[in-house]
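B., you asked whether I could sanity-check this one before it goes into the benchmark set. Here's the sequence:
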Amino acid sequence: MKIAVDLTKLLPGGGNGGIKKTIFSFLDGVRKVSQEKIVYAFLCNAATKEEVAERAQAHDFIWCVQDDVGGSIGEGSWLKVDDRFLRENEVDLLYLPFGEDRFGGGRYPAVRLLGDFLHAVYPEGLPIEVVEYRAKYFKESVESGAAIQVISKDVRDRLLSSFSLDPSRVFLTYHPIGLDEFSRYQGGERASIETYFIYPANFWMHKNHRRLLDAFARFVSGEGMEKYHLYFTGHPDAMMEEMKLYANELSLGDHVRFQGYVSLETYKKLLWQAKALVFPSLNEGFGIPILEAMAMGVPVMCSAVTALPEIAGKGALFFDPYQTDGILTALRQMATDEDLGQQMIEKGKENLSRFSFEEDCQNLLRAFRSVIE
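And here's what the prediction gave me:
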């Protein structure tokens, strides 16, 4: 089976957030569960071509079609790809992990991933042109006849309630990816376990860093709480600099540590030593850091909105992310109630048993096969 994968929206480093890891994990997973040979033809931009090539196997293809994410497809010396090109190169189907069909014109067998409903749930967190762009390709996805992959029941239900769509075209694949390396991790003695909370997320508006900082400023002003810190990891950008300034306005000083985009090993070490993971996001299609923390035995506090209750199950302390008081209460409870932290660790481990990435990859492989039969 030869599958063309549109990676033209891929950014260097951590610019795409968790979707990059999700995409490559699914592609590797499909190879592992398939009994037939899988060949990928990666449609990419020049800025991430080398990164994509490192993940490709010898029999895969790298088709560079633009200079960077903002460049025009197929202009100048870049390869020009359309449905005719795909047929001539014996491509069986398109996999569109960023949703939009930029090459098949809606005429080629395709599987589209629609990862979240951010543009509808929290449109104020996006530029108006992005909201309009996302609404357009969601509508096109529904009208195209493509199989649609979702990564939570929450996204599936929002999709089906928003469009007149045959439910059989929509299939669910959770993505509990890479959890074994978190559950096996041994970072030595948890020497600083009492000193910080961690929030791993890019500094996008819907990630809700500002309300978390408001809550944390009130938290550390409480008696005995001045020893605590808050660690942020995420792709450095203008929004991160804005949050640094805001933390200073709140007189948080050294209480907040901005780590930037860190390696996987550094992230695991930071997570291992944390008192708890706090995840105040206003919108998630899944929320992989929730499961990473659970696999490592780190207590979880998170938002009770969109897909997060579905993914966290009974293994998290929930709060209303729109209410600073709710976030503050959760921080105080986790800091002062040792029994609560241990309960969250135990329930988190139990929650992980609901997920099987191998089964999810089998579901994706079945979808690939169904669109070309």
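One thing to flag: The mean pLDDT is 92. Otherwise nothing jumped out at me.
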